[in-house]
Design a protein that fits this description.
- By secondary structure, this protein is α+β, with helices and mostly antiparallel strands.
- The chain has a single domain, classed as Kinesin (3-Layer(aba) Sandwich), CATH 3.40.850.10.
- Helices cover 41% and strands 21% of the residues.
- Strands 2, 6, 7, 8, 9, 12, 13, 14, 15 and 17 form a 10-stranded mixed sheet that branches. A 3-stranded antiparallel sheet has the order 3-4-5, with helices on one face. Strands 1-16 form a two-stranded antiparallel ribbon.
- Helix 2 packs across helix 4, helix 4 packs antiparallel against helix 5 and helix 11 crosses helix 12.
- The radius of gyration is 37 Å and the shape is elongated.
- It starts with a strand and ends with a helix.
- The protein binds adenosine-5'-diphosphate (ADP) and magnesium ion (MG).
- Its main location: cytoplasm.
- One of its GO terms (molecular function) is microtubule motor activity.
- This is Kinesin motor domain-containing protein.
Length: 481
């Protein structure tokens, strides 16, 4: 078991205008923790954030400034999570921040340049590379891609997505089993045997990601997207299997409802986002308080789906994406505050191993057979009913492969069943007798041939002639070559 608090990282999005400098600074202390200081510009300080304070300081595991490339984000943040997934632990990486702060850029990446690939494609590439290197296990990889919008779940990999409206698709719903494990109904799992297949699924899901025109931003602003890699592994011959999940999560924009400022449908959407992120916040607060026993996971679909990632069996990492421009200071401060809460949550990740029931049944059946035989031997109580056709066939196959086996150490294992042992002896006797008869006929045959009269003269000359002719032919061929 690995006990670990949720790791928090921050990434500052490049600003368009250079004069925004001076709003923040990044420091590193002796313990290598980074801290971000946000300094309020004077005109903002008297008013809407908090007029008593002029600067705020937040600690993070590490802070990536504007120039940080996708490569380093993967190396420092995502690679360790992917490594623990391969080692058998669940993992989650989620990006949290206001719209436009770089969540999608960080999780999925930009489409323009290859070097802009984000965490998902780089993680897939890394995982498949590692799986290929490891021939000691049999791996299977499946992908699912879930979108949560207005508290409803949609399968982004549903093939009907393109053909029908979102509302017409079957909704993904949550089922809870008696052990309180969450199962998602109507969420399809797609096997991916190569990196390319997995990338195609990512692309398909992103294409299906809902687009609704709004004055503020794309629709992805108001929905949460959870890309999940389901990895199973098993050693050949072993009945133990590992099932691990890696969630890569692009959350909805964390901005407050007042900013949207649009009526009708948009306001409902914005309210919903706030509602589901509000429930996320409540879960985080409950988890970070020591003596809380009830954690309100069930209040929203997102917190139910991510229950294990938050305070459960998972190694979880949060990336706070910040857009540190003057007009976004208040949102950035609330993103950092949220991150500080998240950093208090302790998770306990366990190795996700279980026994494959089918393999276990085969193993147990064999054990029962062996025990029955041993018992019969010990009690002296022998079974009297005749061996069945199938048993006899099985036994003869065993004898055949035993006789063929050149290894002098090989053994004929028929268990402690006297019926089978007798049958083996009987079979050996038969084989021995058959062999003797065969030898007798062969020797009498050769005696008979030896007694045949010698070749007649004319036959002898004929053969000699033939021999000469062949000899000549060979000589000609030798000369030619
Ligand atoms: P979000 O998903 O949080 O709403 P996006 O990831 O869509 O934000 O980012 C908004 C815009 O900023 C996009 O055009 C994106 O390409 C760009 N962007 C975000 N972060 C970076 C970065 N670190 N480097 C370069 N461009 C970025
Ligand atoms: Mg986005």
């Amino acid at each position: 078991m690995v006990k670990q608090t949720i790791q928090i990282f921050a990434r500052v999005k490049p600003t368009v205008r250079k004069q925004q400098q001076g709003i923040y600074s990044i420091d590193e202390d002796e313990k290598l923790t980074h801290s971000l200081e946000i300094v309020l510009p004077r005109d903002l300080a008297d008013g809407f954030v908090n007029n008593k304070r002029e600067s705020y300081k937040f600690k993070f595991q590490r802070i990536f400034d504007q120039e940080a490339k996708q490569e380093i984000i993967f190396e420092i943040i995502a690679k360790p999570v992917a490594e623990s997934t391969l080692a058998g632990y669940n993992g989650t990486i989620f990006a949290y921040g206001q719209t436009g702060s770089g969540k999608t850029f960080t999780i999925t990446g930009g489409a323009e340049r290859y070097s802009d690939r984000g965490i998902i494609p780089r993680t897939l590439s890394y995982i498949f590379e590692q799986l290929q290197k490891d021939s000691s296990k049999i791996y299977t990889t499946h992908i699912s891609y879930l979108e949560i919008y207005n508290e409803c779940g949609y399968d982004l990999l549903d093939p009907r997505h393109e053909a029908s409206k979102l509302e017409d698709l079957p909704k993904v719903t949550i089922l809870e089993d008696p052990d309180q494990n969450i199962h998602l109904k109507n969420l399809s799992l797609h096997q991916a045997t190569t990196e390319e297949e997995a990338l195609n699924l990512l692309f398909l899901g992103d294409t299906n990601r809902m687009i609704a025109e709004t004055p503020m931003n794309q629709a992805s602003t108001r929905s949460h997207c959870i890309f999940t890699v389901h990895l199973s592994s098993k050693e050949p011959g072993s009945a133990t299997v590992r099932h691990v999940k890696l969630h890569l999560v692009d959350l909805a924009g964390s901005e407050r409802v007042s900013k949207t400022g649009v009526g009708g449908l948009l306001l409902t959407e914005a309210k919903y986002i706030n509602l589901s992120l509000h429930y996320l916040e409540q879960v985080i607060i409950a988890l970070s308080e020591k003596h809380r026993t009830h954690i309100p996971y069930r209040n929203s679909m997102m917190t139910s789906v991510l229950r294990d990632s938050l305070g459960g069996n998972c190694m979880t990492t949060m990336i706070a994406t910040l857009s540190l421009e003057k007009r976004n200071i208040d949102e950035s401060i609330s993103t950092c505050r949220f991150a500080q809460r998240v950093a208090l949550i302790k998770n306990e990740a366990i190795l996700n191993e279980e026994i494959d029931p089918r393999l276990m049944i085969v193993r147990l059946q064999k054990e029962i057979e062996d025990l029955k035989a041993e018992l019969a031997m010990a009690t002296g109580e022998q079974r009297t009913e005749a061996l069945t056709e199938a048993e006899l066939l099985q036994l003869e196959k065993l004898i055949a492969s035993y006789l063929e086996d050149q290894d002098p150490e090989s053994r004929l294992e028929v268990g402690a069943d006297m019926r089978k042992i007798h049958h083996c002896f009987h079979h050996f006797k038969k084989l021995l007798n058959d062999k003797k008869t065969l030898e007798n006929t062969v020797s009498s045959e050769s005696t008979r041939q030896a007694c045949q009269e010698p070749l007649r003269d004319e036959e002898y000359t004929k053969l000699l002639g033939l021999l000469k002719q062949r000899d000549n032919e060979i000589n000609i061929l030798v000369n030619m070559s």
